[in-house]
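To whoever picks this up:

The nightly regression suite flagged Zinc ribbon domain-containing protein as changed. Nothing in the input moved, so I suspect the structure step. Input below, exactly as stored in the fixture:
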Amino acid sequence: MPIYEFHCEDCGKNSESLVLIASALDNITCKHCKSSNIKKMMSATSSQPVSGNTIPAGALSGCSSRSGFS
Ligand SMILES: [Zn+2]
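Regenerated output under the current build:
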């Protein structure tokens, strides 16, 4: 999905727009103030690699050193 993020030079707010064709970039206006004075931002929101589950296997098995020595 080609979703671009734009920064409005007039009101300073950001907005996202779904751009299907490159020529539509010239017709995009700010969602907040309808200004055409916007800049396209380099957004990587749709291309970030999915990461997770990086917790070591032994990290959740604590409490093993509490036995004895009371
Ligand atoms: Zn604006």
